[in-house]
Write a structure and sequence with these properties.
305 residues, 8 helices, 11 strands
Length: 305
């Protein structure tokens, strides 16, 4: 009997520990704009020699939940969108690892495994990721009490193409593409763009643009997804990081978004490193400076934490 009690208690604590990193489906029912998934369309997860886990063929979007300890919790939360050119998701390098850092400073983090654009599973592949980002922030606002969140301190972060997705929600949050019966605001309270793809017109990352909008994107699509063109006075406060020697996603992407924020009279902070290239995640090996430390200071300055 004692053995059974210990076993049950062990299971109880294991379950509770796992709750902080559970993965939840973001849609309670049908996924908007989805086609029936072909039988041979299977999600793939591959770990490279660099230790980065790359996930592809995502057809079922989820949020992986990382909650801080009750003692540290600030009520702030961030949705994290890993990058990968809209072809894969660097799910640990630009997702889980970052979420754990946020937990250390008392911020709840939710890693969004968003659908990757594919005509085989989407009616309009260009809007699938945006729908998932909108649904993620809708869900967190709706269930803020469940996760002990302040619904006025829910932001979004993205890396590379994930930064493009985060920037798209940042400027297009009024373009509601999901069911929102409660009329909840889909506006992020703050935005964090890390070496982001911003524009499909100025210094574009052609791979991301092609994967999202196709090789024959219309002028209207290119304009819509050039997020610097849609910054206005209501665009939330934004933090940006980039490297001057980024050959994949030119620094002009972050510079153009920052210029648009300044022109609109908005608060924005931009950190440009002389080196680091692209995709450095949390650790820019060319600098002793840690951009995440700068981010923490920025969050405090803006009373997010």
């Amino acid at each position: 009997m004692r053995y059974l009690t210990v076993l049950l208690m062990t299971g109880f604590f294991a379950t509770n520990g796992a709750m902080a990193q559970e993965s939840i489906l973001i849609y309670p029912g049908a996924i908007p704009g989805a086609k029936p998934t072909p039988a041979d369309f299977k999600e793939l997860s591959v770990t490279g020699n660099d230790g980065i886990i790359r996930v592809s063929k995502v057809s079922v979007p989820t949020l992986k939940v990382f909650l801080p300890s009750k003692e540290k919790a600030t009520g702030a939360a961030v949705i994290i969108c890993p990058g990968g050119g809209y072809g894969i998701l660097a799910i640990n390098h630009e997702g889980d690892n970052v979420a754990k850092r946020f937990n250390e400073i008392g911020v709840a983090a939710f890693v969004l495994k968003y659908r990757l654009p594919d005509d085989a599973i989407m009616v309009d592949k260009s809007f699938g990721p945006l729908q998932d980002a909108e649904q993620a922030i809708y869900l967190l606002r709706k269930d803020a009490a469940k996760y002990h969140l302040d619904p006025a301190k829910i932001g979004i972060m993205g890396f590379s193409a994930g930064g493009h997705l985060a920037a798209t929600l940042t400027v297009h949050y009024k373009d509601v593409k999901i069911e929102n019966k409660e009329g909840l605001s889909l506006r992020p309270d703050f935005s964090m763009l890390i070496y982001p793809v911003v524009s499909f017109l100025e210094s574009p990352h052609t791979g991301s643009a092609k994967n999202l909008a196709g090789p024959n994107a219309t002028d209207a699509q290119k304009d819509y997804f050039s997020n610097e063109r849609h910054v206005d006075a209501e665009t939330p406060v934004t933090f940006l990081v980039h490297a001057n020697d980024d050959k994949s996603v030119p620094v002009e992407n972050s510079l153009s978004f920052n210029r648009a924020m300044v022109k609109a009279g908005n608060k924005a902070e931009l950190h440009v490193y002389q080196g680091g290239g692209h995709g450095f995640g949390l650790n820019n090996k060319t600098s002793q400076d840690q951009w995440f430390d700068r981010l923490v200071n920025w969050m405090k300055s803006n009373k997010i934490i």
